[in-house]
Amino acid sequence: MKKAVLNRKGFWVSVIENERLLQFCCILYIFSSRSVFNHALIDTMESQKLIAYLLFFMFGALLTTMFKGNQRDHLVAVSKQPDRSLMIKSNYSAPVEVAAEAVDKELFMKRQLVDLIARRSGIFVNRALRPKLANTLMVTMANWGFKTFFFNWACFSKQIGFDYIVLSMDPKLHNFLGESRSIQMDEVSGKQEWGTSTYFDIGCHKLEAIQYILELGTDVFFSDADNVIGRIPERTFAEMESGVYDVLIQADHPSCVSRSDCPPKWKSGKTANGGFYYFSARRKEKVVALLKRAVMWCLRKPREKKCCDDQQALNRAIYELNDPGLPSPSFPGAEFCSYEPTATLKDQDNLQYCVMDPVEHPAGRHDVKLDKIVSLHANWILDGGKKIEKLQRAGLWQWDGLSCTGDSDPS
Q: How far, rounded to the nearest angstrom, does the alpha carbon of residue 374 sit from its chain's CA centroid?
């Protein structure tokens, strides 16, 4: 391919490529220097003029041919330009490319979340029901392999009147729900067993999404799809509205029979549950820093026995706030249920967090008092059929495989 702009070297290369014109010019030059043009039969001056005209004409033709060739090659080059992203990537090292891709993904997700927050925040479809929760976004997570539990969760949510968004972990569920309800966080299809690397990665991406929502200044009320809320959690909503706590989270340990029994202790395994919680954006910078710390632990590899899926990572990040050897960019410390009647508030600058009432919101290993529950989390059960049975016994199953058996439809 010829270059669009000719330098001296490029000129002679182009001349050589036009062989026929070059040969003709050479012949004319040779004849012009021969004495044959001085022969009496040919007027010397006239012959030299003729040769000069021919040389001038052929030289012009040569330049025209070269120019058209270069112009054509330039157009071909423009029409065949490589993918822009590939050109950009070639200028950077691999770590920079990965970082740039992560930034692009984060910005894209935040743009989507801004639209979803505008559509769905307020907890209820009728936002006038709880105006103090207008800045709170209800969130759940699922993929197509977990659709049975999601549809059942959605049956009850619609029956109560909740509005919510879904963190879709595969394109099939995302496409089914549409962009007005869903944001695609991953491409993991099928059922994912607890303890696998993919299962851990899904949880980490969930934490990242919660972090992004908080960065946008919106409170988050998150529920796993196997944590079914059967009626309005009045007490929990009232505490969310009060602005007292930065975090309200479900107790997970079976020894928690009241709030005072449930302070999470990460190293002992007595942890809060990572599948049902509320995060306030009231102190956005600090709570976002806490989430970033949790995401860091969650994504850390190789993973150890106790660290970290998303639940372990979140508990560890909270636990570390009270470690004097770890100066935190987040809260200076953490205080558990310090606004309870029997508690003493030490420092309002600390993270204020508490567990939800374990009687109203039991997790998988709690004793369930059916007449007092508001929600039930069917965690700690790997078998899907047994999860369903547990929720059925509590009267928290409506999905028959095609539609809701109650008064609502999950779509």
A: 32
8 Å CB contact between 143 and 177? no
Taking Cα atoms as reference points, which of 201, 147, 153 lies closest to residue 175?
Answer: 147
Angle at 102 between CA 97 and CA 107, to 5 degrees: 125
Burial class for 135, CB neighbours closer than 10 Å (0-12, 13-18, 19+): middle
Do the beta carbons of residue 283 and residue 245 sit within 8 Å?
no
Q: Nearest 5 degrees, angle CA 156-CA 162-CA 167? A: 90
Distance of CA 80 to the CA centre of its chain: 33
* 136-142 vs 165-168, strand pairing mode: parallel
Structure tokens belonging to residue 230 = 């059967």
Strand partners, 162: 124
Return the structure tokens found at 164. Answer: 């919510």
CA quadruple 294, 296, 298, 304: dihedral positive or negative?
negative
* Strand 334-336 relative to strand 351-355, pairing: parallel
Residue pair 333/322 in contact (Cβ under 8 Å)? The answer is: yes
pLDDT tens for residues 162-183? 999 999 999 999 999 999 999 9
Task: Say what the pTM is.
Answer: 0.73
Close Cβ partners of 290 (under 8 Å, ≥ 6 residues apart) = 317, 318, 321, 330, 331, 351
- The string of pLDDT tens digits covering residues 276-306 is 999 999 999 999 999 999 999 998 877 665 6
* Tokens at 279, concatenated: 């995060």
